[in-house]
Amino acid sequence: MRLFSIVGTRPEFIQSSTVHHAAKDFDGVSHHYIHTGQHYDDEMSLTFWEQLDLGMPDCELNVGSHSQNVQTGLILNKLGAVFADAQLAPDDWIIVYGDTNSVLAGALAAAKCPAGLVHLEAGMRSYDWKMPEEVNRVATDHLCDLALAPCSSAASTLLAEGLPEHRIGVIGDTIQAAYERYAAPAVASTIWIKQKISPYDYILVTIHRQENTDDQERLRRIASALRILQGRGHKLIMPLHPRVNRDFFEGLSVIDPVNYFDMLALEVGAKLIITDSGGVQREAYYSRVPCVILRDVTEWRELLNTGWQELVSPLHNTAIEIANICEGGIETKGDDVDVYEALDGADLIRILALGDGKWLHNIQEGSME
Fold it and tell me: Is the pTM value of this prediction over 0.70?
């Protein structure tokens, strides 16, 4: 059996690492990477492959930066040729992770070939159709042969949308699995020395979502809130995504994107995390660091119930209100509960290779059968 992971962004490299390493322990199972090139900056791509010990991609599509439609179309077109050359068989599986353009293109291409398609992080919903990620994840869930959710509520969503029960399973969170594997060695990072900051004495900020970066008023409010926080004596550090206009954040502690281990270290050592990233939102919780999510909605709603996180809309709050909420969140301590389970890559491979139902979590109870 051959597994083909389609990846193109930082979260997908992290999400796929558990599957990649687990596949090495199974005879007759080979894992192959198809890198779309959606992220092509070294700190957003190359260093992740090295740190996660993923080897090199078996195939690189090198699509680069384009509009959403053009990028998705380019990936879809190139994947068609790759799949044809691979001579895919019914016992092969194509794996997509999350909600990116690479995921949607991979799902569309897989739907037209004999291999099976499995979607990890299935069933997560923001119910905001203005978000391209929402379109990507919903379409992929309804195209895939196996929709594997991180939690029982996501599986219930899939059932409510009409997916048949035999196509749905609860298998846990890929980001948590990677966090548990890499958080400890990441603390050896020298990022604190390099940036001249002390653990637990700074606020970590990440902004990358289109809903924020493409809306100048939202971006202005976010930047103004950060300046207020800095003016009140809080140290900030902000690894800035390449798509974000740096001019909005002049005078703030903006740095270039950092590698995975440096990012984990910054998360673990922060006194507060401000983000619009679903991956960073989860890593913040696994680090038990208070987190403010700068979005109108989040698909990871379960984390809001823990008391560690607060959803703050830049559209419905002024800069001062955003800053006050963030400052108030620094001393937040929530519940210490296991919201999701960590995905076990070996479990996934057993499901795909053996069709062994006992490895799927019970949809209603969220426990192992």
Answer: yes
